Amino acid sequence: MIERLENMLAVIFGAIFLALSVLITLEVLLRKLFGFSLQGSHELGGYALAVGATLSFTLALFGRNHIRIDIIHERLPRLFRAVLNCLSSILMASFAGLLGYLAWNVIGDTLAYRSVAQTSWATPLIYPQSIWYIGQAIFMLAAIGLAVKSLWLLISGKLARLDEEYQPKSAKQELEDELDSASQRQRGPSL
Amino acid sequence: MSLDYIFIAFALMVAMMLLGLPIAVSMAAIGIIGGIMAYGLPFMNSISPVVWGVQNDSLLTSIPLFVLLGEILLRAGIADGMYRSLSIWLGRLPGGLLHSNIGTCALFAATSGSSVATAATVGTVALPSLNERRYPINQSLGSLAAGGALGILIPPSVNLIVYGSLTNTSIGQLFMAGIIPGITLTLLFMAYIAVSSLMRTRHEDKEANYSWRERLSASVDLIPPLVVFFIVMGSIYSGLATATESAALGVVTALIFAGLKRKLTWTTLRTCFIQTARVTGMILLIITAAFILNLTISLTGVASTMSSWVTSLGLTPVMFLLALVVFYLVLGMFMDVLSMQVATIPITYPMALALGIDPIWFGIFVVLMCELGLITPPVGMNLFVVHGIRPDNGSISGVMKGAFPYVLLMLLFAGLIIAVPAIVTWLPEMMR
Amino acid sequence: AQENTIQWKVLGQPLATGKIQSQKEQPFFENFAERTGLPIEINYQPVDTTGIKDTEQLRIMKAGLFDLVSLRMSPNSRDAPVLTGLDLVGLNPDYATARTVTDAYLPVLDEQLQESFDVKLLGAWPFGPQILFCDAPVSSFSDIEGLKVRVYDQNLAKFVESVGATAVPMSFPEVHQSLSLGAVDCAITGPSSANSAGWPEVTTHQLTLGMGSAMNGYAISLKAWNQLDSNQQETLQTAFNELNDEIWEYSESLYNDALNCNSGQQPCETGTEYDLVNVEPTEADLAQVREALLNISLPTWADICDQANPDCSANWEANVGPVIGLE
Ligand code: NA
Ligand code: NA
User: Fold this and answer.
1) With contacts defined as CB-CB under 8 Å, which chain B residues touch C64?
2) What are the chain B neighbours of A94 within 8 Å (beta carbons)?
C-alpha cells in the first residue's frame, strides 16, 4: 500500500515540475523572441515548490532519506539503537505535526484576511495554500503512523525488525541502489 | 545572549545530530526551544508565516529543478558515455585514466547537483577499465572521491543555492563565482595526477593513442552535458533568465537529449521523479528547519554577539578565515556537509560581513569547506561511496589514503583564494 | 523608571534599503529611550536578517512576537489591500501630492488596521517617486510605446501596458544586466537605487514622473500601545511624528540629490556622477497618469479592496478624493 502511495505522490511531484519547466521555457522563449511576457510562471513556481515540498517530505520519509548521522549510532548495542531509532521517528512525527499545525494557522489567517496574491492573476491565496495544507497533512499522518509502529515494535520487543526498518539509511545502502541502476544502464559496450 | 548559552546550544544540537537523531529535527528543536525560552509562546505562532514564506520562495524552486535535471542526464546514461569520450581525449596525459575520472566528475558535476550519484556512476564505468590496466587502486578511488566533490562547487550547485537563500545573496552571481575556482581546482587535481605519475617509475598508466576521427566520433557524448551547462550558465550570464528559469531550461534540454537517446521511458521517468523527490524532501526539510533556527538566532542577537565577539578578538580577516578553515575542517570530519553548511552559516556569515569579507566570495569559501568535508574521515560521504564500489576487498583506510593528497590540495586552494580573492570575484563582477 | 522598563521588539526595514534605514530608522530605535524619554528598551532587527519575508509582516505582528514593525505597504497589501490606497499607481507623481494624500488617508488606514489586525499606525513615509530609466531617447511618457519596461509589481505592469509598452517583471539585481544587453529598454525604480546599482551606465534618459512612492509606515501592536498610559502614548506619537517628518524631508533631499547625480548636476553628495538626460514630465504626461489612475489603478484596486471590506473604496473616495481634486 505504501508503495502505491509512494508511486502516486512521486508521479504528481514529477508532473508538477515537468509542467513547470515546460511553462517557464515557453515564457522565456516568448519573452526573448517576441518581447511578450506571460507573467505567471514566477507565481506558479512558488506554489509548485510549496506543494512539491510537502509531497517530497513524505517521499523522503518513506525512502529514509531525511539525514541522520550513523557514525556513533551504528556502534551502539542493539537496545540503545532501537530506542534511538524509535525516538527519532517520534521526533520526526512531532516536527511533522508541528508543521501541520503551523500550516493550519497560515490557512486560518488567509481565510480571515481573504488574502490575494499581488500578481496579475490576483490568486486568492487559499487555493494554493489548501493544496499545500493537504500535502503537509499527508506528511504528518505518514510520520505519525511510522512513529506509532516503531513504538509498538519497541514495546513488543521486536528489536531486529525495528533495526531493519528504522535504521538510518547508510551510505552503503544508498550506494547499492545507485549501483543497481547504473549497471542496468550499462548494457552498451564497456571501454 | 551570552556566549556560554550559544556554545551550549550549539554543542547540544551537534550532540543530537551525532546521536543519530534526524538533522532537521535537531535544528528545529534547538531553534524552537531557544525561541520559546526567550519569548514564550508567541514565538510558536510567528513561525507559521516563516514556514509558508520559505516553502513558497520561488528562488528555492530551482532546487527540485536542478536535481531533476541531474537525474534525467544520469538515468538516460549520458554520464556513462562521458567517461568513455573523455578517456579517449585525456588518456594520453601522464596519469592516464585518472584524468578521465577527474574530468568526467568535473563535467558531470557541472550539470548535476549530487556528488554521490556522480561518484557512483563514474565509479561503475571507470573501475573495470582501471582495474584491467592495473592502476593503483587507492589512487583511483581517491581521484574518484575528490572528483565527485567538485560537483558542489561547479555550478549548478544546490549548496550554492542554499547559501544564497540563507544569506540573500544572488544565486546567479554565486554560480558565476563558482566557475573559475571549479576549473582551477580541477586543473590542480590533474596537475597533481600528472606529477605523481611522472614521479613513479612505472609508466604503464598511459593509454593507447586514438586517431582524430575516433576522438571526434567518441565526443558525441560530451555534447549533452556541455550544451546543458552553456544553456544554464549562458542564460543566467546574459540576463535572459533567473537561476530558477535557467534550471527549467536545463530540464527541458535534458529531456530532449534523453529523448534523442531513446531513453525517455516511463520507468526511467518514474525513477527520476522518486529520486528527485527524495533528495528535494531531504534538503527542503533541513532548510525549513534552518529558517526556524535562523529566526531564533537573529532575534536573540546570537549573530551580533558572535560578530562583536570576533571583532573584539581583534582578528584580521585572514586570521578569521584561517580559524574558519580549521573549524570547518574539524566539523566536516563528523558532520554531513549540507547540515554543516545550514547550521553554521547564520552565525559565520554575519561574522564574515562584520570583518568586511565579500558575501559572494564567502559563499564559495564555505562550499569549498563543504567539499573538504566530503572527503575527510571518519564521516566523508564520498569516501563511503567509492569504498562501496571498489572491486577488491580492501579497507576504507586505503580510500582515505588515496584521497588524502586531495585534502591537502583543497586546503592549498583555500589558501590560494584567501590570498587572491579575485579568482572568485572577478567573473561575477564582470557580470554586473 | 528602572523598575518597570518595557521591552519591545522592532522589525525594521531591510538593511539593503540603504540610507533611510541606516541614517534615520536604525539610529532612532537604537537611541529610543533617550529620544523619547520613555522607559522602553528596544530590540531592533532589520527584516532581512531574520529570514522573515516582508509579505508576512502583518501576520508576524498578529502572532505577537514583534511589538512594532516598519511596515512595507506594497508587499503587505496581500493581506490588507487597503494599504495600496496610499500609493495607487499614478496617485503620487511628486512629494507634495504624496504628503497630502498620506495625511488625508492615514486616519482611514489606521482605523482599518486596528480593526482587522490589532495594529495601530504611527505614521507613513515614502522612499520616494519611482521613475523611469530608459536606454532610448524618450521625451515624454507616451514614448515608451513599443518598448520593454521592467516593472516590480502588477499594478505598474497594467499601467505601462496601458500606453502600449511590454511589462517585464524582473527582480532588482537582474535589471542592470538586462538593460545592458537590451533584454529590456526601460526600468522603473527610485533614482538613488538606480544610482547605486549603476543603471545610468546602461541607460541614457531619466523621466522624473513618479509612478509610485514606495510607501512605508510604523505599525505598533495594540497590546504594546496599551502598555502605555495616555501621556506616554502622546509622547510616543509625537516622537514618531518627528521621525516621520525627518524621513519625509530626508527622503526628498536624497531624491533630489540622486536626480542631480544621475544627470551630472550639482550638488551631488550621495552618489556617483553620470550624464543622463533629465526629462521633466509634460502636462500631457500628468494628464495621462491621472487618466490611468482613474481608469485602471483605482477600479482594479477598488474591486479587490471592497471584497475585504465593503466600505473600502467609498472611504478612499471620501477622504482622498477631495484632496486630489476628484469630484
Ligand atoms: Na554542480
Ligand atoms: Na568529512
Assistant:
1) 42, 45-46
2) 25
Nearest alpha carbon to residue C59 among B53, A32, B74: B53
Task: Check if the beta carbon of residue B380 is closer than 8 Å to that of residue B144.
Answer: no
Contact A53 B335 (CB under 8 A): no
Q: What's chain A's Rg over C-alpha atoms?
A: 21
Distance B380 CA to ligand 2 centre (A): 4
Cross-chain Cβ contact C50/B238 below 8 Å = no
C157-192 tens-digit pLDDT: 888 888 889 888 777 777 887 888 787 899 999 999
Q: DSSP states of B79-114 as a string? A: HHHHHHHHHHHHTTSTTTHHHHHHHHHHHHHTT-S-
According to DSSP, the residues that pair with C169 across neighbouring strands are C151
| Residue in chain A nearest B377 by alpha carbon | A71
B113 Cα to the center of ligand 1, angstroms: 5
Above 0.90 for ipTM, yes or no?
A: no
Residue ranges of B 314-373 with Cβ closer than 8 A to chain A = 334-336, 338-339
**Can you list the pairs that B201-206 forms with residues at least 24 positions away whose Cβ atoms lie under 8 Å?**
B203/B94, B204/B133, B204/B134, B205/B94, B205/B95, B205/B96, B205/B97, B205/B98, B205/B133, B205/B135, B206/B91, B206/B92, B206/B93, B206/B94, B206/B96
Closest alpha carbon to C36 in C227, C223, C229, C233: C233
The bridge status of strand C215-221 relative to strand C166-169 is unpaired
Q: Is B141 on the interface with A (CB under 8 A)?
A: no
Chain B CB contacts of C199 under 8 Å are none
Helix (H) or strand (E) holding A153: helix A126-155
Chain C nearest C-alpha distance from B345 (Å):
12
Residue holding cell 554586473?
B432
- Helices H, strands E: what count in chain A? 6, 0
Q: Using a CB-CB distance cutoff of 8 angstroms, which residues of chain A are in contact with residue C73?
A: none
Q: How far apart are CA C220 and CA C222, in angstroms?
A: 6
Contacts of A38 (CB under 8 A, 6+ apart): A23, A26, A27, A30
Strand order in the sheet with C205-207: C166-169, C148-151, C186-189, C131-134, C205-207, C277-279
Distance from CA of C210 to the nearest CA of A (A): 20
Residue type, C102: T
pTM: 0.89
Q: Is B7 on the interface with A (CB under 8 A)?
A: no
Nearest to A174 among B56, B64, B116 (CB): B116
User: What's CA A118's distance to the chain center, in Å?
Assistant: 28
Q: Which of residues 96-115 of A touch C (CB under 8 A)?
A: 106, 109, 113-115
The pLDDT tens digits for B242-291 are 889 999 999 999 999 999 988 889 989 998 999 899 989 988 999 999 89
Ion ligand 2: residues, Cβ under 5 Å: B 332-333, 373, 376, 379-380
Average pLDDT over residues B200-214: 66
Set of chain A residues whose Cβ sits within 8 Å of the Cβ of B49: 106, 109
**Over the stretch A43-80, which tens digit does the pLDDT of each residue have?**
899 999 999 999 999 999 999 988 888 778 878 898 99
